[in-house]
């Protein structure tokens, strides 16, 4: 039955029957592929390809060359789609994913050309328009996916202008796909919306970054190299005589038992050969692995010079964040200054309180010395003890907070320079990162080591390849047909002749194993010369990593520093208020204490008996009058200092009673 018209088609030709079977096989494979999980790229194109290349095209409309080519490209395109999805799930490199997606576009373009052929259009009838619209939608969609990943590739290479144009192109192509998707199922619409969210977000972010940070010129799309497709799927060959297609041979069991027994003996000979070869390979591999482990040489990281040419992404992210927050350093400096001011005010207040208390205590001791005893407690002013206690508490708090404040300022000063650097030009950031300086001899040593390491890897790969070839060759080696026609007495000779086919592979393997000793010797010599270069590179890498970590830590410490600075300001503001109040109380208490001491002194003086009036000798009286500076001294009568009570003789002038307090020191000395 012809698929498009529904007409019955009959030919008296056995090849037509074969063609129908092959067509149905291709159709069945396409249905199974649509039902299966999209993790395999095997496709139904093989049957259609064999049918197109080996059978006439005049049997029916659906077996014409154009229709079969259309089917083949549709199958290959869908198979490449499966491979694309698998590559994206496996997080393959962006450039590879872009090439795979571009090849999907190429397959569908071929299918579209077949659909646009006038002959095909007349054959397909009404469905030609629907198919063409769907294929065109897929072309635009997968072109958008390809340019999305080319944009990601440009981002990885820090080509920020190219990234913008690729993402913009992807957005344009996706919009075309959305226009052509009208009438498609909801699952298709949902997929297009999701892709629009991804590509739209990427484009907006890339454009914003380039406008505000990188300022790279955005090239025209046609000036960039086009993405070449990577055809990673192919039509599986279909051989009508292949048991995988035709099923098992119905005469397979018609083999003599002796031939089966001889085949088992031959299999044992092959197994023995494989065991011998594998024992040698494993012994050499063990030596090689132990040697490479002891060397600690990783071919991928032995030359890491490329990383010094770029600012690492984690640091680039911090620079971008600071570029939109230009007040970061100024805010931190202002916070430090405010905190220092409040800290100084608190320290000054507490020092004044402490000075007042110490002065009061000194006056108290002086009074005790004058009176010769501790003054009586009754009537002493209250409050000084409480002030002293609170002052000690505040001083203790201040001392503890002072250490924290010092550490906070040290941390701020440590991170301030790094924050200024991160907020500055990218060239300065790149210049601040350490870079290795290698001489020409050092570079030669490095290149030589890389070359030998590549030889080691090449030796490994060749060894694995030869081993795999040997295994596959042994697996496929079936001489049952020869055994059926060979006399039993000739079996041993036949085995020997058949096993000779492995001699060439064995020679290659022996050469590979023998070369290992020379390669490892050369690697040892190269590693000795590399030691100094390795040490220098390791030191620079350590400094580079430390610098990057320090800069990142400074960025991440900013918020914490601002928070702690605010907490410090709140603490010292509160303490400043308390210290100010305590200072007022201290002043009042010290004044009250001074007044109390004056009262005590006056009471003590009143308790003393009045002095006996004994007139001094005239010459002494005249001398006193002269020393006192006038006749007022005569009012002192006959009072002589030696006649004062013992406890009042050592009082300072300001504490003497009556007229004696008015005498100048020379007069008092004369009295003494």
Automatic annotation (TrEMBL):
GO terms for biological process: early endosome to late endosome transport; endocytic recycling; protein transport to vacuole involved in ubiquitin-dependent protein catabolic process via the multivesicular body sorting pathway. Keywords: Coiled coil, Cytoplasm, Endosome. Residues 343-373, 449-476 form a coiled coil. Residues 608-619, 662-672 have a biased composition (Pro residues). Pfam families: ALIX_LYPXL_bnd, BRO1. Residues 594-607 have a biased composition (Basic and acidic residues). The keyword Cytoplasm applies. Residues 650-661 have a biased composition (Low complexity). PANTHER family: PCD6 INTERACTING PROTEIN-RELATED, TYROSINE-PROTEIN PHOSPHATASE NON-RECEPTOR TYPE 23. This is PTN23 phosphatase. It comes from Callaeas wilsoni. The lineage of its organism: Eukaryota, Metazoa, Chordata, Craniata, Vertebrata.
């Amino acid at each position: 039955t012809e698929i498009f018209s529904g007409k019955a088609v009959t030919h008296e030709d056995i090849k037509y029957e074969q063609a129908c079977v092959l067509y149905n096989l291709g159709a069945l494979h396409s249905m199974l592929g649509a039902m299966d999980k999209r993790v395999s790229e095997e496709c139904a194109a093989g049957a259609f390809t064999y049918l197109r290349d080996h059978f006439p095209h005049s049997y029916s409309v659906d077996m014409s060359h154009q229709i079969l080519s259309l089917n083949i490209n549709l199958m290959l395109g869908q198979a490449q789609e499966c491979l694309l999805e698998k590559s994206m799930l496996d997080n393959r490199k962006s450039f590879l994913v872009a090439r795979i997606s571009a090849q999907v576009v190429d397959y569908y373009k071929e299918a579209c050309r077949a659909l646009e052929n006038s002959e095909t259009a007349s054959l397909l009838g009404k469905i030609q328009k629907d198919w063409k619209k769907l294929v065109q939608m897929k072309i635009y969609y997968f072109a958008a996916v390809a340019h999305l990943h080319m944009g990601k590739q440009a981002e990885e290479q820090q080509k920020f202008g190219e990234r913008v144009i690729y993402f913009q192109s992807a957005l344009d192509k996706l919009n075309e796909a959305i226009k052509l998707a009208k009438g498609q199922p909801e699952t298709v619409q949902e997929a297009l919306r999701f892709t629009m969210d991804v590509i739209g977000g990427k484009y907006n972010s890339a454009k914003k970054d380039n406008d505000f940070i990188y300022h790279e010129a955005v090239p025209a799309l046609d000036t960039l190299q086009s993405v070449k497709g990577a055809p990673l799927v192919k039509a599986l060959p279909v051989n009508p005589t292949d048991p995988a297609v035709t099923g098992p041979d119905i005469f397979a069991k018609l083999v003599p038992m002796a031939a089966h027994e001889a085949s088992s003996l031959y299999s044992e000979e092959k197994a023995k050969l494989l065991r011998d070869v594998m024992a040698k390979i494993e012994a050499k591999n063990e030596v090689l692995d132990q040697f490479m482990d002891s060397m600690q040489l990783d071919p991928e990281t032995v030359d890491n010079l490329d990383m010094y040419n770029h600012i690492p992404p984690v640091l680039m992210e911090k620079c971008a964040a600071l570029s939109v927050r230009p007040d970061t350093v100024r805010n931190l400096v202002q916070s430090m200054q405010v905190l220092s001011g409040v800290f100084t005010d608190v320290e000054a207040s507490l020092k004044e309180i402490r000075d007042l208390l110490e002065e009061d205590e000194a006056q108290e001791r002086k009074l005790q010395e004058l009176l010769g005893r501790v003054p009586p407690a009754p009537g002493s002013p209250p409050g000084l003890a409480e002030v002293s206690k609170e002052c000690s508490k505040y001083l203790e708090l201040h001392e503890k907070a002072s250490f924290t404040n010092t550490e906070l300022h040290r941390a701020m000063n440590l991170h301030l320079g790094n924050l200024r650097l991160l907020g500055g030009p990218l060239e300065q950031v790149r210049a601040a990162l350490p870079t290795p300086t290698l001489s020409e001899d050092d570079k030669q040593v490095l290149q030589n080591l890389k070359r030998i390491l590549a030889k080691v890897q090449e030796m490994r790969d060749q060894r694995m390849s030869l081993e795999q070839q040997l295994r596959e060759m042994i697996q496929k080696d079936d001489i049952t047909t020869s055994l059926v026609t060979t006399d039993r007495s000739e079996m041993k000779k036949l085995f020997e002749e058949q096993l000779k086919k492995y001699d060439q592979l064995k020679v290659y393997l022996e050469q590979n194993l023998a070369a290992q000793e020379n390669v490892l010797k050369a690697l040892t010599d190269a590693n000795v010369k590399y030691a100094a270069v390795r040490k220098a590179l390791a030191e620079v890498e350590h400094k580079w990593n430390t610098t990057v970590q320090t800069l990142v830590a400074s960025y991440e410490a900013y918020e914490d520093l601002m928070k702690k600075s605010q907490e410090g300001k709140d603490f010292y503001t509160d303490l400043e208020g308390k210290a100010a109040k305590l200072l007022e109380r201290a002043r009042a208490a010290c004044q009250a204490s001074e007044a109390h001491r004056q009262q005590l002194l006056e009471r003590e003086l009143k308790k003393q008996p009045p002095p006996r009036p004994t007139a001094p000798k005239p010459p002494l009286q005249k001398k006193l009058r002269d020393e006192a500076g006038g006749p007022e001294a005569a009012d002192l009568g006959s009072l002589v200092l030696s006649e004062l009570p013992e406890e009042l003789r050592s009082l300072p002038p300001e504490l003497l009673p009556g007229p004696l307090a008015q005498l100048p020191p020379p007069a008092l000395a004369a009295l003494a």
